Known about the structure:
The complex is a heterodimer.
Chain A: E1 19-22, H1 26-35, E2 39-46, E3 49-54, E4 65-70, E5 73-78, H2 95-98, E6 102-111, E7 114-119, E8 127-132, H3 134-147, H4 155-163, E9 165-169, H5 180-183, E10 195-200, E11 203-208, H6 211-218, E12 223-224, H7 227-243, H8 250-256, H9 265-272, H10 278-282, E13 289-295, E14 301-308, E15 318-319, E16 322-323, H11 328-347, H12 357-360, H13 368-376, H14 379-386
Parallel strand pairs in A: 2-8, 8-9, 9-10
Antiparallel strand pairs in A: 1-11, 1-12, 2-3, 4-5, 6-7, 6-14, 10-11, 13-14, 15-16
Helix pairs in contact in A: 8-11, 9-11
Chain B: E1 6-11, H1 17-23, H2 29-35, E2 37-41, E3 53-59, H3 65-77, E4 78-84, H4 86-90, H5 102-109, E5 133-135, H6 142-154, H7 165-172, H8 177-181, H9 197-200, H10 217-225, H11 231-238, H12 246-258, H13 267-283
Parallel strand pairs in B: 1-2, 1-3, 3-4, 4-5
Helix pairs in contact in B: 11-12
Amino acid sequence: MTNTLPTDTEVAGMTPAASFLPRSALQTLLDLLLGQGYQVIGPRLDQGAIVYDSLERVEDLPAGWTEEQGPGLYRLQRRDDDALFGYAVGPHSWKRFLFPPQVNLMRSQQTDDGWRMSEVVQPVVRYAFLGVRACDLAAIAVQDRVFLQSGFVDKVYQQRREQALLIAINCTMAAATCFCTSMGSGPRCQQGYDLGLTELPSGFVVEVGSERGAALAANLPLEPLQDEQDQAAERARQRAVDDIGRRLDRDRVQTVLRERLQHPQWDAVAERCLSCANCTLVCPTCFCTSVDDVTNLTDQEVIRERRWDSCFNFDFSHISGGPVRDQTRSRYRQWLTHKLTTWVDQFGTSGCVGCGRCITWCPVGIDLTVEATLICQDQDADAETRS
Amino acid sequence: MSERPKLAVMKFASCDGCQLALLDLEDELLTVARAVQISHFAEASSHLEPGPYDLTLVEGSITTPEDRHRLLKLRADSKYLVTIGACATAGGIQALRNFADHDEFMRAVYARPDYIETLATSTPVAAHVKVDFELRGCPIDKYQLLEVIASLLAGHRPRTSTESVCQACKRRGTVCVVVTQNLPCLGPVTHSGCGAICPAYDRGCYGCFGPTVQPNTRALSDHVLLPRMASDQAALALHGINAYAPEFARGGQRLWQLAGLPKPLHPSLDASLETSLDTSLAASSATEPASS
């Protein structure tokens, strides 16, 4: 297997004792990354939300901000402290950096000897992601399976992924839309990161997750971890666990959902669903694209372009004779059953990591956990409820 | 040497903004002029050649008997006939007369309404003749226009996605204004093509590009518009630039009804609108297996 990534935590015997990075030294970490040629991407306030974007200064981070989330609802709110990472997850996922919305793949040019085709050379980008949540680590692992470990290697993703440095932040709170505990993906960052941080008022408990992370840690002004800091971090992480109220019976859904293809709830959800595709584009694991050959007026050049696409688009399943999934009902059913069940057959893992983005960013507030639960609930119990 | 294809740009009831998109293709205009022979484009040149034309771009809706006559002749003179913009494709903002009494409008506007010869309705070009392609927008996007010209010359279907505006927002990284700012927005049911400009400037989508495929205007009205605006305002949101696009026409009528201000369509149009809606529904239910 040639696709094993250097960020694997299964580096033999590597669980060095955690240490402590004072808050005043966080800028040193940013400077170190910038000095090594990384483009640092992390949380910033923008457009009324906490998005992921380029940053260089600790002051760029959303100190003292958090958010309220619900189905179809996101509002920034002030915290009563100045925590830098005191929020859950925002509208963006790291997908837009590792798997960009639009890429040119190939160019064909008309020459005297006929068409000449050439691959478009992708720019080398070195990202350092600051503030990766456990659900996002799980999502990146899912996309690793799809793009690197399933027989096909996506070169655009591979280049960006191999270069990327992941600095994870353990959640110390949860949004009302979070359900990572149900999907087994969080909130504790277990693996897949280079450095793992837990934020305390005075600084960060630092865990090293890879050789690259260890090399970085060696250049940081780390202090030995005190017992009380360790315990405070544990309590902070437990708060996130306790905060999560949303549940999904993953195992039941995985087995039952695919047997309920004619359930009336599919019609009910299609009445509300706009088929606008927001859920799939905010989903950190959805990977569908369309590839088009783009001509120009001179007929001398054709560019092969790849863009994010969605199974909610009417044309997405278009084959000879028309679209296979030509109703919102069948498109929603395709998305949900793939995400929660057949994804497991295909990639050996669920396509859902419980980040809740599809719930928050649905304009009409359709809730995946509610829909899947309704469709999978015991039909006898269902009959009783209705009678 | 083979002749370049002849291009004509023709105007009916419209503001000329879509034709300007062609002139606005500053960097590409010379390439366009080399690829086609611009035979008839009154906005650009007073040198006007008669048909037939290989590609005719039609702007504007049909609002007078004389225009209708001119359109029928133009169709006969054109190999490909492509409508550009909301007026030619859906009747335009002037199609609001389809929900009102045009005689009353004329009396309000003109001192001598008896001098005016007009139809009671404003209708899209496709209501009168066969249209080969409809390019959406108010105004159209100049790069989409370039794509239409280039693809028709190359002999393939124009690459203009029917997806919702939301997807353009997501690709460019615009955070949803419905979810964060509680703004009403037509983006989820609106055809893409504009590049999602308005939400990037903290505005909801105005629906300039008209309905997308299978727009769920009812759910948008009930769950996005009505919680954020009064029903008459929501009706106006759907009955804007694309008021007579079938799905927006019906969606808006439902909202006027909810507001207690029913706006029936002109009697000559009601049946034709049903037909357009039926056609789009039939196209969309051909292969779905019956639910048990």
